Amino acid sequence: MNSRAARLSALSLLLEASSTPASKPATRMQSENKEVAKALPRNLIEAVAVEPRFDAARGVRISVLTELKWHQSVQRDFARERKALPPGQAVDSTFAMQITRNCDIISEYEDLLERDFIPQHGPSQYLSSQQLIMSRLFNVRGPAERRADHEMFTVAELAGGSIRFRGPELRQQDGMVFMSLLNMLRDFKTQTLVSFRPADFCRASLGSYSGQARERLRQSVLRLQGSVLEFPQFSVQLAQRFDYPDTGPWSVALDKNIVALFRSSREVWLDAALARKMPHGVCSWLYAYVKAQTRLIPTSAEYLRKLSGSLATTESYERSLRQALGQLASAQILDPGWSVKNGKVHWRKSTQTP
Questions:
Q1: Looking at residue 25, what is its pLDDT?
Q2: Which of 184, 174, 237, 183 is nearest to 206 (CA)?
Q3: For 270-299, what is the HEC assignment?
Q4: Looking at residue 300, what DSSP letter applies?
Q5: CATH of 125-346, one of 3.90.650.10, 1.10.10.10, 3.30.470.20, 2.40.50.140
Q6: pLDDT value of residue 53
Q7: SS3 (DSSP) at 340
Q8: Would you say the pTM of this structure is higher than 0.70?
């Protein structure tokens, strides 16, 4: 056997011995699962998978990415060796089958990442979508206004229908909790049940921990669990399973279809630390709205009032709007030259990095 044939044989044997398609049970040892857990980036809220028979090799993003990159490197090796074959020499049938098999495995891992993991974002980022932000899904109403037990409205129009919301009224604090859940669970496969300490979640999402904050968090996740976004052919719960014992860690899981929220709309990333500093209401909603725009154009204050779900009078809303615009300018989100004239907001994004 010549050296090239030996290399091809070695590549084939290595692939045969080491690769497991994503659709089959993984054989990774428990010690390797622990190494995967150590490699995860440190989160604002630490979470641990408690799903029975949880498979870290297929249920954690970094493991899937590692396997995907390995198979891609093998494919490049195969391509180089195939290109180096003498003119007219046919590819060995076993070698050809290995190339095809490796291509299939790569496709499976790519599909797994796209289908079962929410879009990648960092520990210090919050993720949302333009459709969700530019709606009254998480409205700006304050604690003095009575919360509706049930609402139904259209969130966004799609080419083949619409996205409709049904569930309890959600406000900006609920939106913060929702984005915190996405951040905490971003590297786990959807539907994976994970445990977390409610004290950590309260401090990271609500700013402090107390008995009242713990109850606010519980009520917020329950509202998310009761909230459904209906697409033309399926529906999505904003939170799926939720266990909240009186003592010890709580646990939560995301709906398998949660990924669909980011398929029909542009992803929007928010600075998590900055988002937590924004007062809940007009200011926090406006911050996300500005981040969702490529550029800002003169905008009707009445349009913003209705879009954000405000029930305030025009005059009262404009006072809150001016205050929020000033806060966003101080945070270097907006250029300080903003103004509200004749019911229109004149503004532009800051060129400085906050």
A1: 44
A2: 174
A3: EEHHHHHHCCCCHHHHHHHHHHCCCCCCCE
A4: E
A5: 1.10.10.10
A6: 86
A7: strand
A8: yes
- Residue showing tokens 């490529």: 294
Cα–Cα dist 299/318, whole Å: 13
Copy the structure tokens of residue 248: 């010890």
Q: What is the model's pLDDT at position 12? A: 58
The Cβ of residue 110 has, within 10 Å, a number of other Cβ atoms equal to 15
Q: Is 330 helix (H, G, I), strand (E, B) or coil?
A: helix
3-state class percentages of the chain: helix first, strand second, coil last, to nearest 5: 45, 15, 35
- For 299, counting Cβ atoms within 10 Å of its Cβ (0-12 exposed, 13-18 middle, 19+ buried), the class is middle
The angle at the Cα of 227, spanning 46 to 171, to the nearest 5 degrees, equals 75
The Cα 351–Cα 354 span in angstroms is: 9
- Phi-psi category of 309—alpha, beta or left, where left has phi over 0 and alpha has psi -120 to 50? left
Q: How far is CA 105 from CA 23, 74, 100, 264, 337, in A?
A: 9, 11, 9, 27, 54
Q: Identity (one letter) of the amino acid at 260?
A: A
Burial 72-95 (b: 16+ CB within 10 A, else e): eebbebbeebeeeeeeeeeeeeeb
Angle between helices 3-18 and 93-116 (to 10 degrees): 40
Could you tell me the two tokens for 120? Answer: 């990648």
Residue 346 burial (CB count, 10 A): 14
The answer to whether the beta carbons of residues 304 and 135 sit under 8 Å apart is: no
Collect the ranges in the chain with pLDDT lower than 50.
1, 17-18, 20-30, 32-33, 36-37
From residue 163, how far is each of 178, 194, 264, 265 by CA, in Å? Answer: 18, 28, 10, 11
The number of residues in the chain equals 354
Q: Which residues pair with 252 in a beta bridge?
A: 194, 242
Residue-level pLDDT at 94: 75
Using alpha carbons only, give the angle 181, 245, 118 rounded to the nearest 5 degrees: 15
Nearest one of 97, 111, 172, 98 to 142, comparing CA atoms: 172
**pLDDT score at 4:** 52
The residue extents of the domains of the chain are 3-46+55-116, 125-346
Collapsed DSSP state (helix, strand, coil) of residue 268? strand
